[in-house]
Amino acid sequence: MPPGTGDVQLSVSQNIPVTGAVIVSTPQDIALLDARKGAEMFRKVHVPVLGFVQNMSIFQCPKCKHESHIFGADGVRDLATTLGLDVLGDIPLHINIRETSDTGQPVVVSQPQSDMAKAYLRIATEIVRKLPTPPT
User: Fold this and answer.
1) What is the β-pairing status of strands 67-68 and 49-60?
2) CA-to-CA distance for 108 and 96, rounded, in angstroms?
3) At what angle do helices 29-44 and 7-15 cross, to 10 degrees?
4) What is the spatial distance between Cα 96 and Cα 38, in angstroms, rounded to a whole number?
5) Is 64 among the domain residues?
6) Is residue 83 part of a domain?
7) Beta-carbon neighbour count of residue 78 at 10 Å?
8) Is residue 5 in a domain?
C-alpha cells in the first residue's frame, strides 16, 4: 500500500483478514516518519507487524563498484530496534530492479541468480518464517 495511515490502510486492515504487515521504507528520515506511523497504526488495529524491509539501502556504482548510502544508512534498522521489530532484509538501489520490473519480468524471474533476486528471496523466506502456522 502507499505510505501513510490513511483511509486505504485502515479500510484494508479493518475489512480484510490480514495475517501480518510488512513495512517497507527507505532509510531516510522523512520516509521513516511514515514507516513509524504505519507500524503503530497496524499495532492499534491488532495486525501483527512481521518486520521492516529497508528499500534502496545501498547503491553500488556499476563502473567503479563504490558503494554509497544515498538515502542514509541503517535508518530502518534503528527504527525497527526502537519499535522492538525485526528487519527482514535490505533491497539495494539498482537499475536492473527498475528496468526488469518495467518490462514485466522482475529481477527474481529474469535474473534469479543475481544478488538482487537473492535479496528478495531472503526477505520472502523471512516473511514465511514469521507467518503463524495454520491450525491442523
Assistant:
1) antiparallel
2) 11
3) 30
4) 28
5) yes
6) yes
7) 14
8) no
Q: Evaluate whether 38 touches 44 at the Cβ level (below 8 Å).
A: no
The owner of cell 519480468 is 105
Place of cell 533476486: 117
Structural domain count of the chain: 1
The three cell numbers locating residue 89: 532484509
- Grid cell listed for 38: 504505519
Strands (E), the chain: 21-25, 49-60, 67-68, 87-93
Residue 12: inside a domain, yes or no? no
Q: How does 46-57 read in b/e, with b if 16+ C-beta sit within 10 Å?
A: ebebbbbbbbbb
User: Under a CB-based contact definition with an 8 Å cutoff, are residues 3 and 34 in contact?
Assistant: yes
- Whole-number Å distance between alpha carbons of 56 and 3: 15
N-to-C CA span, the chain: 31
Q: What is the pTM of this model?
A: 0.87
% of the chain exceeding 90 in pLDDT: 71
Cell representation of residue 34: 511514515
* Cα–Cα distance measured from residue 121 to residue 115, given in angstroms and rounded to the nearest whole number: 10
Q: What is the pLDDT of residues 10-46, one digit of tens each?
A: 777 778 888 899 999 999 999 999 999 989 988 988 8
